[in-house]
Specification:
The protein has a two-stranded antiparallel sheet with strand order 1-2. The model has no long low-confidence stretch (mean pLDDT about 80). It has about 80 residues and is mainly alpha-helical. The chain is built from 6 helices and 2 strands; from the N terminus they run H-H-E-H-H-H-E-H. The protein is elongated, with a radius of gyration of 19 Å. Bound molecules: calcium ion (CA) (2 copies). The site of one calcium ion has 7 residues, from strand 2.
């Protein structure tokens, strides 16, 4: 069987897209385990130190901390992922 290369590439791209979908959907939903994973000491807020385990959050900490109290509350985090 001789499948043209172009066609093989198309199949490969389609397969990758389907595999990536569940991960993207999970991210979009922003499941609540994300917050508790980041809130290492469980006080209900993500401190700057705790945000270091998540590169994007650490880099955007000031923008996410909308009330500028130096902590990311669950509300601020939820607003971010919605
Ligand atoms: Ca905490
Ligand atoms: Ca805050």
């Amino acid at each position: 069987m001789n499948i043209p290369f172009r066609f093989k590439t198309l199949i490969a791209i389609t397969a990758v897209s389907f595999m990536a979908l569940p991960a993207i959907a999970q991210q979009a939903q922003g499941d609540q385990t994300g917050f508790s994973d980041l809130d290492a000491d469980g006080d209900g807020n993500i401190s700057l130190a705790e945000s270091k385990s998540h590169q994007w959050l650490a880099e955007n900490f000031a923008a996410v901390d909308t009330n500028k109290d130096g902590l990311i509350s669950k509300e601020e985090f939820t607003r971010l992922i919605k």
